Amino acid sequence: MDEIQDNTRRRQNPLNRGAGGTAFLSRVIGHIDLDYFYAQVEEVEKPSLKGRPVIVCVFSGRTEDSGVVSTANYEARAFGVHSGMPIAQAKKNLEGRNPEVIRMDHEKYEVISGRIMDDLGSMVDALEPTGIDEAFFDITDSTGGDYGKARRSAESIKQAIIQNEHLTCSIGVGRSKVVAKLGSDMAKPGGLMVVSPEATEPFLAPLDASRLYGIGPKTTSVLGEMGIRTVGELARADPSELESRFGRKFGGYLLAAATGSDADPVVVGLEPTQFSRIVTLRRDTRDAKEVAEQLSEGMQYIYGKLLQSGKSFRTITAIGILTDLSTKTRSKTFETAVSDVSLIRGTVPALFYELGRTVGREFRRAGVRVSGLEDVKDQTSLSEFIRQAR
Ligand code: DCP
Ligand code: CA
Ligand code: CA
């Protein structure tokens, strides 16, 4: 059924060139985006915030309120507060509403993001993170192109993130990146939108063209001059006119996007920026030795990743997640990049000792992260040398 319909569409749309014998197997692409990410992380850490307006702010430090809102939860958005709004304005909008104003803690959101991306990576065929709280993924192979299975996969991904991090997200699934991204936008907050191949064009047609990924105000206004307002109108536009207005490449993209047949693949991030491993401890503890022991395998995994990718690291971080799911970290940065496993093994217990002492509470989960990755040039670390010699 899908195959026949897809076949028809491909003939209508010359830009959609399938490859070889599997040309008519629809791809299954997803886009995941965490809901009001920074603010939701803060709610998870402090559940008493739930139901109240929360704004996460970047203070510039000039005056007490100078700076902007990084993001806001939906309770605050209901009063017109949004990312980029001056803090003073946001406070004014929320006057008398008992808002919680929180200083942005980028490091914390990075740690949580890295953890979620690691989890996601193990649940999909290919993962392409595109921001701190979002990623494209491909599940064509694991679902065999079956959109019923795709829905179940997306549901288990949502479930896993709730289970592991207590965070909600929105997911869109469709046959191209453009469709998947639209789906996650429309599913916000907390939803799942699956657009099957046969539903794609009717789904897209009535939407404003400006909603398509990559179409900004400038493109929208040129399209307007051409009498094109909806995606359906764009799909029926004269290809040569689009080409002359926008150039071959972007003109071709616009047409493909409008039919949900943009062919851009999900590209696994080639250049990692960090490697991390997190485990749930066998019992809640802040005993550094006990924690480090249970991270032994994780450290080996990280070391393996460093070897595989030819990277060394500058910074190593001990991550402790408390029973209330708040995240505490302690890092050490080396003067030059290092890649020795014995350095990892030696540093981690010391960092956890420090972390446990300053936090003074027990950890439920614990992890290690190395970041500040650099290419290992010609230097061979001691342990790598030994490994190679064996
Ligand atoms: N962010 C920021 N400043 C902006 C936009 C975003 O600091 N102008 C940060 C805070 C957000 C995070 O990036 O939490 C992710 O951005 P999103 O655009 O995905 O917005 P949210 O996740 O906050 O909200 P939504 O639920 O709409 O996705
Ligand atoms: Ca988001
Ligand atoms: Ca986002």
Report on the architecture of this protein.
The protein is α+β, with helices and mostly antiparallel strands. Helix content is 43%, strand content 23%. It contains 17 helices and 13 strands. It has helices at 2-12, 37-45, 74-77, 87-93, 106-121, 140-143, 147-165, 177-187, 200-204, 217-225, 231-235, 239-246, 248-258, 288-294, 296-309, 341-359, 382-389, and strands spanning 29-34, 54-59, 67-72, 100-103, 126-131, 134-138, 169-174, 192-194, 274-285, 311-322, 327-338, 363-371, 374-375. Strands 5-6-1-7-8 form a 5-stranded mixed beta sheet. Strands 9, 10, 11, 12 and 13 form a 5-stranded antiparallel beta sheet that branches. It has a 3-stranded mixed beta sheet with strand order 3-2-4, sandwiched between helices. Mean pLDDT is 89; it is low at 1-23 and 378-382. The structure holds 2'-deoxycytidine-5'-triphosphate and calcium ion (2 copies). One calcium ion binds next to loops.
